[in-house]
């Protein structure tokens, strides 16, 4: 699904439309910074997969649980719970671990250390339980992940892996997850006063920095 189609598929509510447009731009800008897989060494490819796994395997459900706890509307909680239920029911962390193992990219202590500070910043942000910024952040992340999956699969394939369940599943399901999070955002914005962009997109900036840390290792 192209970015234009992904953006158009979500809610067209006038309150969330500008946020969707900005998130779409943020995702495309971030994708443009991804290094060419053909120019990466095996160690660099392995590092990206390992750092991604170090962040996602043990944190995504935590982040989404924070969104659930923070949400003030029944509508938002229902949509977030659907996402959590799928993550747990289908053992998405297990899918990711198999993906990393097959690509010889199981994260080690060095991989965890590289992302530690930026990951901590995201955790602390989630811990503040501010509903609108958290849902905006998770919508950004789901949208990015959906478009990142072909790149991640390419890296794994170049590592000799054929275990693509994780990337196949998330390349499809995260389209729906993104749409549902924008609907959750609509419900949460109905309960909140408008806030400054700096507050609304704080988590997006923190998560973008973490993703760049994963990909570029700096």
Protein model, in words:
This protein is mainly α and 218 residues long. It has helices spanning 3-9, 17-32, 42-56, 60-70, 74-89, 92-102, 109-127, 131-158, 165-189, 197-200, 202-216. Helix 2 (17-32) packs parallel to helix 8. The radius of gyration is 17 Å and the shape is globular.
Quickly list its features.
218 residues; mainly alpha; disordered N terminus
Mean pLDDT: 91
Order of secondary-structure elements: HHHHHHHHHHH
Number of DSSP strand runs: 0
Tell me the β content. under 5%
* N-end to C-end Cα span: 30 Å
Instruction: Please state the CA-atom Rg, rounded to the nearest Å.
Output: 17 Å
Report the sheet with the most strands, covering strand number, pairing sense and barrel closure.
none
Estimate percent helicity. over 70%
Structural classification: mainly alpha
Low-confidence stretches: 1-11
The total of helices stands at 11
Q: What multimeric state do the chains show?
A: single chain
- Apparent shape: globular
Short description:
The protein contains 11 helices and no strands. The chain has 218 residues and is mostly helical.
Strands, helices and their partners?
Blueprint: H1 3-9, H2 17-32, H3 42-56, H4 60-70, H5 74-89, H6 92-102, H7 109-127, H8 131-158, H9 165-189, H10 197-200, H11 202-216
Helix pairs in contact: 2-8, 3-6, 3-7, 3-8, 3-11, 4-5, 4-8, 5-9, 7-11, 8-9, 8-11
């Amino acid at each position: 699904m192209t970015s234009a189609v992904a953006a158009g598929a979500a809610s067209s509510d006038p309150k969330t439309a500008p946020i969707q447009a900005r998130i779409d731009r943020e995702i495309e800008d971030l994708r443009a910074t991804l290094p060419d897989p053909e120019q990466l060494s095996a160690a660099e490819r392995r590092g990206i997969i390992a750092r991604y796994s170090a962040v996602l395997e043990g944190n995504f459900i935590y982040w989404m649980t924070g969104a659930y706890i923070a949400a003030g509307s029944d509508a938002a909680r229902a949509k977030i719970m659907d996402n959590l239920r799928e993550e747990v029911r289908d053992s998405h962390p297990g899918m990711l671990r198999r993906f990393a193992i097959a690509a010889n990219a199981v994260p080690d202590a060095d991989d965890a250390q590289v992302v530690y500070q930026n990951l901590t910043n995201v955790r602390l942000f989630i811990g503040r339980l501010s509903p609108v910024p958290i849902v905006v952040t998770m919508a950004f992340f789901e949208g990015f992940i959906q478009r990142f999956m072909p790149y991640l699969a390419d890296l794994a394939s170049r590592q000799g892996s054929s275990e693509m369940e994780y990337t196949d599943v998330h390349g499809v399901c995260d389209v729906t997850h993104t749409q549902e999070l924008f609907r959750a955002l609509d419900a949460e914005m109905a309960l909140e006063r408008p806030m400054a962009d700096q507050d609304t997109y704080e988590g997006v900036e923190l998560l973008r920095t973490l993703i760049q840390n994963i990909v570029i290792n700096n």
